[in-house]
Please model this.
Amino acid sequence: MNRKAVCCFEILAAVLVLAASCSALADDSDASIAAGGLVPRRETRIVMAKEVLRISDKKVVVDYDFRNDSDQDVTTEVAFPIPPYSNGFVEGPSPDEQSFQSFKLWVDGKPIHYESEAKATLNDKDVTVVLKENKIDIPTFGHFEDKNDSKGYEVINTPDFSRLPKTARDRLTKAGIFKLYDQLPAGQWTVHLQYHWTQTFPAHSTVHIRHEYSPAVGFMQVDTTEVEDSLAQFKTGRSPNDDSGEVKWLAGFCADQPFLSVLERQLSQSKSQAKTEDERLWAGVAGSSWVDFILTSANTWQRPIEDFTLIIERGKPEQGEKRLISFCSPENGKVERLDADHFQVHLTNFVPTSELRIGFFDMPLPKPAQPATAK
Model:
C-alpha cells in the first residue's frame, strides 16, 4: 500500500463523524517551526531503545528509553536544538513561541534543570557580544512585548532597548541591530538557541528521558477551488510536481483522493448553505494548521530506533466545526485507530530518513435541514 493510502484512508474512516475546533482561520498564512528530538554532542554509543512521540496541535510529548550497553558510564552533553528565528514583530510568531519557552524536561521521572545557550547574527555577522555588552536579552529580542493593557489598547515595548542612553540606542539603530517602526524599536538579529544539560548514562542501564513543549503551529486557509485543483491531479493522472502552490502543499500531507473528496464535499455544502454575510465570508474555506517535527535528529544516537511509536491526537472539537487530519506515515507504516481521536504508527528498527508534518483541517459543519413549517 502506498504512503498516501496508509496515512489517509484509515484516518478518513474515523473523521467523517467527528467535529473539531477551527483554530487556523487567519487572514494570512504563517509558517510552522520544526523542532525535533534530543541530540547528543558527538555521541553514538547510546542506543535509543524506545521512542514514543505524541503530537497534537497543542502539545508535543516525547518519551525515550536510552540504553548504554557498554561496560563504562557515558557522560555527554544533550541538547534540544531550536531552529534559528527572527523577530516576528508586525506579523509572525512571538519570541516565546519561536524559542519554545514551554520546553520541560524530566529524567527518570524527575524534573531536570537545563541551561540555555543563545547567539545572535545579523547579515551573517556575530553580534552576540554587542548585545551582551548592552545587557539586551538575545532570545526575547530585548524582552520585546506586544500586548494589550487593561483598557484593551495595544502596548508595544522593548524595555532592554528603552532603558539605554540615547547614544547607545542611536548606535544600535545605526548598526541595524534595531529598526524603528513609527519610533517603536524591534530587534533585527537572528537567534541561534539551544537548551542543553549534562547527562550520564550508567553502564548496562537504561535512562528514561521525557520532554514536552507547545509547538509553533503553521496556519493557512484552503478554499474549495484549491481542493478541486488537488483532486484534478488524481483524475488526470498528473503528478503533484506538475502543479504549484496549494496543490503541492496539500500533497505534502499525503492528502489522497478519498480525503480530498470529503474535504471538497464539506466545503461545498457549507458554501451552498451560507445565507448571512458573515457565513458567506467563511463558507467554502477550511482553516488548516500543521505541526512539523524533525525525526532525523534521532540519527545522532546509535541507529536504529529499536521501538518507535507515533501517536497523533486530533484535538478537542468546537461546536459547529469538523476536523480532518492527514500526514505521511513514516516508512509507509500502518496507521491504526486507537479511538475516535487518536491514531498510531508503530515501527521497529526504524531509521528516520525524512521529517514529519501533521495536518489538521478544520471546516464548518453543514447545517441540519430545517423541518417544513405547516401552513
